[in-house]
């Protein structure tokens, strides 16, 4: 029996992904609106892509995978541009590396009802080694982990993040999101409890699908660190092991100075790294933390160390745009503003009693001199004063034009 994954273009331009064992009947239901949910609100719909799979799980995995892609990437798939899909996977690094809060990618994210799948899921960017991918031949393929050999390139000098026996797919996704925000892209998983790929990882990654796409799975910590010269074990617990212990800043400095292949181990959410795991590391890295409450979650631990590494990297991480301050207004413009305000206040009878006029004027000058007024700000305030000084018709709440 065959199953199909498919994608529709809705009347609002958004894309909808689904799966079915009867594509023709399902498409007719979408077109008539009898499916309910998202597509019924955005008809007419048009079938723009479909692919056959040998079983329902594979078709469902492809649906979830595609729902996690950006609009541009979906359109590359529709056009059959596999080279474009690969390029877009790499470009996700540039898109998300500078954002502390990565945006969602699903076109349907704003709608609660998603038809076939109430919770749209992301499996991979489409070219995954560890997760499986939608292939040109129409099957989900899987390849084993491939380790890099030879000299470490400039791009590879970021530490490898290794999650040891992670328990929840959501936490893996959140860790991937934390990594990509600070330019780290190489994720390895050691014996994930719920297997891999994990459909819960995608939504939590919030667009960091290139990290999930290239995640590699290993059976043991020894295998995961086999090509690494330096290995840090991240832990907040006291260990009865004779190993150098450093803080995040020193760890980051050492990584940048060494140029060696480096990995950072993070333990399971519930218990952290076991002593046997820590024994395999060359150093311990520990984050200073409140001794009365030492409880970092997995993603928080990853983001702290990833951020510290990024501070010394050559990566051009984005800073919030800051507008240059305007030059201060010449003193003559400020004097004009004060004189303008003084004249209107005098005309309005503000200076009362008369014997306190000079004291009040000094106070006004002090107040008006404190801000570092720009010429534009001086003009704006004078415009306000001018408007307030215009006579108002009786009963009017607004000044005349």
Strand order of the largest sheet: 8-7-6-11-9-12-10
The CATH class assignment of the domain at 157-321 is Alpha Beta
Low-pLDDT windows of residues = 90-156
Q: From the 3D coordinates, which CATH architecture of the domain at 157-321 would you assign?
A: 3-Layer(aba) Sandwich
The name of the CATH superfamily of the domain at 157-321 reads SPOUT methyltransferase, trefoil knot domain
Overall description:
Among the domains are: 157-321, SPOUT methyltransferase, trefoil knot domain (Alpha/beta knot, 3-Layer(aba) Sandwich); 331-388, no CATH class. It is built from 15 helices and 12 strands. The protein has helices spanning 23-32, 37-41, 56-67, 71-78, 82-96, 169-181, 201-205, 209-213, 221-224, 248-258, 275-279, 298-311, 331-347, 357-369, 375-388; strands at residues 3-9, 15-20, 46-53, 133-134, 140-141, 160-164, 187-190, 216-218, 230-234, 245-246, 262-266, 283-285. The longest helix has 17 residues, at 331-347. 38% of the residues are buried. The model is unreliable at 90-156 (pLDDT under 50).
Please provide a brief summary of the model.
By secondary structure, this protein is α/β, with parallel strands linked by helices. 38% of the residues lie in helices and 13% in strands. The chain contains 15 helices and twelve strands.
């Amino acid at each position: 029996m065959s199953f199909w994954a498919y994608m529709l273009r809705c009347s609002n331009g958004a894309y909808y992904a689904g799966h079915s064992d009867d594509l023709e009947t399902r498409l007719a239901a979408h077109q008539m609106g009898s499916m309910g949910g998202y597509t019924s609100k955005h008809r007419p719909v048009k079938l723009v892509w479909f692919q056959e799979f040998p079983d329902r799980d594979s078709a469902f995995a492809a649906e979830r995978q595609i729902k996690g892609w950006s609009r541009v990437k979906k359109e590359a798939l529709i056009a059959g541009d596999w080279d474009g899909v690969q390029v877009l996977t790499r470009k996700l690094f540039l898109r998300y590396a500078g954002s502390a809060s990565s945006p969602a990618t699903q076109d349907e994210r704003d709608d609660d009802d998603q038809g076939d799948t109430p919770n749209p899921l992301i499996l991979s960017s489409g070219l995954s080694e560890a997760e499986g991918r939608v292939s040109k031949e129409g099957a989900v393929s899987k390849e084993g982990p491939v380790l890099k050999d030879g000299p470490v390139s400039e791009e590879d000098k970021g530490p490898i993040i290794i999650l040891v026996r992670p328990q929840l797919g959501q936490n893996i996704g959140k860790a991937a999101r934390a990594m990509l925000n600070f330019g780290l892209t190489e994720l390895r998983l050691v014996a994930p409890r719920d297997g891999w790929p994990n459909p819960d990882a995608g939504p939590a990654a919030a667009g960091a699908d290139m990290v999930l796409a290239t995640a590699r799975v290993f059976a043991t910590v020894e295998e995961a660190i086999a090509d690494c010269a330096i290995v840090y074990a991240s832990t907040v617990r006291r260990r009865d092991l004779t190993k150098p212990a450093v803080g995040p800043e020193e760890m980051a400095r050492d990584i940048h100075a060494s140029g060696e292949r480096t990995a950072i181990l993070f333990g399971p959410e519930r218990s952290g790294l076991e002593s046997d795991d820590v024994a395999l590391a060359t150093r311990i890295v520990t984050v200073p933390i409140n001794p009365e409450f030492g409880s970092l979650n997995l993603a928080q631990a990853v983001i702290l160390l990833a951020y510290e590494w990024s501070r010394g990297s050559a990566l051009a991480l984005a800073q919030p745009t800051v507008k240059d301050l305007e030059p201060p207004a010449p003193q003559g413009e400020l004097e004009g503003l004060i004189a303008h305000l003084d004249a209107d206040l005098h005309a309005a009878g503000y200076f009362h009693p008369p014997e306190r006029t000079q004291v009040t004027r000094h106070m006004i000058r002090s107040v008006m001199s404190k801000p570092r007024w720009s010429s534009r700000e001086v003009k704006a305030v004078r415009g306000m004063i001018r408007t307030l000084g215009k006579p108002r018709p009786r009963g009017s709440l607004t000044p005349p034009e």
